[in-house]
Structures are given as C-alpha cells and as structure tokens.
Design brief:
The complex is a heterodimer of chains A (240) and B (193). Chain A is α/β, with parallel strands linked by helices. Chain A has helices spanning 47-54, 77-87, 103-113, 118-131, 147-159, 177-192, 204-207, 231-234, and strands spanning 5-14, 21-31, 36-40, 62-67, 70-71, 88-92, 165-169, 196-201, 212-217, 220-224. Chain A has a domain at 5-98 and 164-230: P-loop containing nucleotide triphosphate hydrolases (Rossmann fold, 3-Layer(aba) Sandwich), CATH 3.40.50.300. In chain A, helix 4 (118-131) packs across helix 5. The radius of gyration of chain A is 18 Å and the shape is globular. Chain B is mostly helical and 193 residues long. Chain B has a three-stranded antiparallel sheet. Classes of the chains: A alpha/beta (240), B mainly alpha (193). Chains A and B meet through helix 7, strand 9 and strand 10 of A and helix 6 and helix 7 of B.
C-alpha cells in the first residue's frame, strides 16, 4: 500500500550564516490511509513547520515529500495548488472561518474554488455539516456559533469532497476538554473512513486519540510510540 | 477507594442485598475496580456494627438478606462526600525520584530518561482513550473513571515537559558566555554582556 503522506529526509533551514536556524532536520514520516498520527513536541520543536511542509504550504530546504505517491517538488505550482484545494484538508487552532460567510458557505467554498457549480457545492457542504451534527446551524455565521461548533464547521470544510489528507494544527487548543474530545473523535472518524491524518499538538490527551505518536525535539524525530494493531482491519469499506 | 462509602451510596437509593451491591458497584465504576462478594459482606457487617446500615436480620451467609441505610449512615455519607481526600503529604513519587537520580548519574542524558517515561505514559493514555472511544456513550461511570486516569497521566506528562524545559534552560545558561569576571562592583554590570 502506498502511504498517503511520505516524508523522506526532510530538512528546513531558515536564514543563513550566523542567523541560520534549523527548524527540521532529516525528518522521515509515513502516514497510511485510515491512520491518524499525532506529532508531539514542545513549542519551537518544528511541529508546525512539519505540518506546513506536509501540506505543501512551504517547501523543504532538502528532502522529499510525497502525497499519494506524487513528489511535490516535481509538480507544477498549478498542480500543487490543485492538490491543496482538492486533496488536503487543513484545520487550525483558531478555526480560520470567513466571518462574512455562513457555515454552509464556508464549507462549500473550497469546492467552489475547485470549480464545482455553486448549487452542487452548497448541497455537498450541507451534507458534510449534517454528518457532523450541524444541520440546524448551516445558515449561521461563525460569530453566532460556539467554539465547538466553529471547529466542527472547520472540520466539515476540511473533509468535504474527496479529500485524502487531513492536517490539523492544535485543532482543539481553544476548546474545553469535552469539546476537544468531540473534535478528536470526529478527526478519528474521518481517518477511519479512509483519510490519512496528521495532528500536531502539545497535549498528551489529544495525542492519545491517534494511532501512533511521533515525538519531535529541536526539529528531529526523537521517538515514537509502538504502533497498535488494527487501523487497516477497520478499513473494510469500499474506499478507493 | 472507600468501599464502605460506595456501599452506603448504593444503599441510599433503597434496600439491597449483597450480591446486587457487588454488581452495581462494579458496573458503576466502569468495571475498573473488581470487588468480590466476600468483601461486600465483611464491609456490610462492619457498617452494621457501626450503626450505618441495618438488615432484616434473617438468613445466613450468602442468602438474599436486604440491607438498609440508617439516618446515621446518611449523615456519614454526606460528610464523607465533602471531606477532601488525603492529599496534604506529597507522595514519594517514584518517577520524580528516577529523574532526580538521573541528574546525578554521569553519562546519563536526562532528556532521554524523561522521553522514555513520556512515551510509556502516552502509550498507556492511548489504551485508556481506546477504552473510552469504544465505550457506549451513555456509560458515564466508565467515562468518569477513564477521564480521571487520563487527567492524572496527562499531569505526569506535563510535569515531564516542565522538567525538560527547566533542564534545557539550565543547559542554555551554562552554555552562555560566562558573566563578566567578578569585579568589585557587586555584579551591577553583569547583565550587560
């Protein structure tokens, strides 16, 4: 099975000469479909850099990043942009919803940007909201939603369409523990349905929802938990 | 875990016999604390001796003898619920001792020691989280017991994180250029470097 995300010898250096800072050093990471991996480490350990490079929002200084078997550096900027729009879902701590759009419009937006006809995008967006228990909130604006609801809208936006890679940066950092747990359950469910997930967090309780935890220190992977058996065995659906 | 008070709590709902008390105790604590029926009867005898419960007085060991809570038992239960657990004396935490000892042993990278424990703790937390994830949503007892354990383990991980941060801070300080050589000016210029 090809890994959905494969990082090989990835390093990232900012600046040069005496001000040079090495944010990531020789990172190797492989995440399969159906699997959720948490990246844990203190502030400044390179967690967020790893995520932005995995999501092709930033380029590594050296090393290779493959998403669904395609090497990002070999793709044209247009193809990379299409990959980001179509295949990768991002979730951020501060939700990043557009305040002037309703919940349904926020979720439909990536589909419309990807060329979906507006009505079809809206219908698909509503369905994603319904699956996350937000059917009755679809016409609300982000300011009228609670923190937990906003993050569920952000999750709907990240999984809508046929996305395959889910990247989350402290996805429940701004929520209380019960809402945080609900968010992790939803991310876990999305991965169980066939997405590959990478969740960056410093919170051990959230990391514990992942199938595997990778520990980062000073830009290097220093350790990881033993992989528990079984995410594959749960993937009996018709996915791909 | 006070079995005495857990039994009083179960009896506060109405009279019950020993076997039923044992089953209810286990199901309501998420089946995390096994309790044998012999322990239930011994505890009931002591509660009866202390005047906190009373029985209908019939039947021998193992028969279905009903127990009832007394008003004194209710007072005892209410007082116990509000009494803080004994947390005044810091426990002699083995992990704290290991990290303190690691600091003294030459050639040991303390960060590797803390990481080994962090990994182990997160693996344990993962197993607990699986239990919670697979449990029925209405199983409140189980969720509460698992949450308590997860918060406790998370606290230990956070202590390890804080220990790492302190060690690294100390490391940075010792690597920094030495402060200005001791002068007679009582160190007032030492910050300038």
């Amino acid at each position: 099975m090809t890994a959905m995300l494969e990082m090989r010898g990835v390093s990232k250096v900012y600046g040069s000469g005496p001000t040079e800072v090495s944010a990531l050093w020789d990172v190797g990471l492989s995440v399969d479909r159906g699997e959720m991996v948490a990246i844990m480490g203190p502030s400044g350990s390179g967690k967020s850099t790893l995520l932005t490079i995995a999501g092709s929002l930033e380029e590594p200084t050296s090393g290779e990043v493959l998403v669904d078997g395609s090497e990002l550096s070999e793709m044209s900027p247009n193809d990379r942009a299409r990959l980001r729009r179509r295949s990768i879902g991002y979730i951020f701590q501060d939700f990043n919803l557009l305040a002037g759009l309703t919940a349904a419009e926020n979720v439909a937006l990536p589909l419309e940007l990807d060329g979906f006809e507006s009505g079809a995008a809206h219908t698909t967006g509503l369905e994603a909201l319904r699956e996350l228990g937000l059917a009755d909130r679809s016409s609300h604006f982000p300011d009228d939603l609670s923190g937990g609801e906003r993050q569920r809208v952000a999750i709907a936006r990240a999984v809508v369409g046929n996305r395959r890679l889910l990247l989350a940066d402290e996805p429940s950092g701004a929520l209380d523990s019960v809402n945080g747990e609900a968010v992790m359950r939803l991310l876990r469910d999305a991965c169980r349905r066939g997405m590959a997930g990478v969740v960056v967090t410093h919170d051990a309780q959230l990391a514990a929802w992942a199938d595997r935890v990778v520990f980062l220190r000073d830009g290097r992977i220093v350790d990881h938990t033993a992989q528990t058996p079984g995410p594959e065995s749960l993937l009996s659906g018709p996915e791909e | 875990m006070s079995v005495r008070h857990a039994l009083l709590a179960l009896l506060s709902e109405g009279p019950k016999f020993g076997l039923r008390l044992q089953q209810e105790f286990e199901s309501r604590t998420g089946e995390v604390w096994p309790l044998n029926v012999g322990q239930v009867y011994t505890t009931l005898q002591r509660l009866e001796r202390d005047g906190f419960v009373e029985s209908d007085g019939e039947g021998g060991e193992g028969s279905q003898k009903d127990f009832r809570i007394t008003s004194e038992g209710r007072r005892e239960l209410t007082a116990w619920l509000r009494t803080p657990p004994d947390s005044e004396i810091p426990p002699r935490d083995e992990l704290v001792i290991k990290v303190l000892v690691a600091l003294q042993v030459p050639g040991v990278d303390v960060l590797n020691v803390t990481q080994a424990h962090r990994r182990h703790l997160v693996e344990t937390m993962h197993r607990y989280t699986q239990v919670k994830a697979d449990a029925a949503e209405h199983d409140l007892g189980l969720a509460l017991v698992v949450d308590a354990e997860l918060f406790r383990l998370e606290g230990v991980v956070r202590w390890l994180d804080a220990a790492d941060a302190r060690l690294r801070q100390l490391d940075d300080t010792s690597k920094a250029p030495p402060p200005v050589a001791r002068s007679e000016s009582h160190g007032s210029v030492s910050g300038r470097r």
